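User: I'm curious whether this sequence folds into something compact or stays loose and floppy. Could you predict its structure so I can see for myself?
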Amino acid sequence: MNAIPAPLRGGLWMMGAALCFTVMLSLIHPLAEELHPFEIAFLRNIFAVLFMAPWIWRALPAFRETRNLRLFILRALFSFAAMLLWYYGIPLIPLADAIAINFTSPLWATVFAAVILGEAVRARRWAATMVGFCGVLIVVRPGFEAMTAATAMMLLSSVGWGCQHIALKKLSGMEQVSVIVAMQAILLTPLSFVPALFVWTTPSWGALGWAAAMAAIGTCAHICLTRAFRAADASAVLPFDFAKMPFAAAIGWFFFAEGVDAWTWAGSAVIVASTAYIARREAIAART
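Assistant: Here's the prediction. I'll summarize afterward.
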């Protein structure tokens, strides 16, 4: 695969991540028929720890030396909140709509980078961010479509993912990638265990299988994503993230009899284009 030009190689890895991510989200549907979202989150996280055991073992020495435990915990809290909102909302709306709204996470990250971290965000990036949020309005269509609780959950989930992106951005300059990934899995497991106790029902073997599949596919998504960003700049690979839409449309139509209207396609295209432009501007700023 190294013979393939770097931008195309990165794009292929990003498409792999998009497929894994979309399949992982689709598996919430069968689990939600049997288990509470709190329990789904815990099972997914405990299986993720098992799959990541080799990385966690290698990262153990670095755990004892970290000085960023508070930031790790903050990132885990944001991720946990976003994860629960996902698990509540995704079974209630078409998968493609959920994916389209989730595209806004980098937009929120841009806003929070300016407000919380004090990063200099110039007019072009602000304009692209506003265009991206207009894409959300195209998907949600407030005033034309009723704003459901599930849609609101997905929007709030995107805010949570945007917040955790900011924490990740800070950590990436101070910690090894293996430590960041392993610490996230370790912290999310006890966080999700406590609320799961209050709604616990013994899962069937089928539910355990779905949860294990979610964890395995989610781990593959992270591996593909890491390789994508190693192969090429974010501005080169982010447009390939739009592959989530046809994947979500196909899975939603084939397994859940869901349709995707033109507004969702148009809005998600606007969002992805704006996030790709923001990534390009960040890459240019980093070189100057």
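Summary: The chain has a mean pLDDT of 83. Residues 6-287 form one domain.
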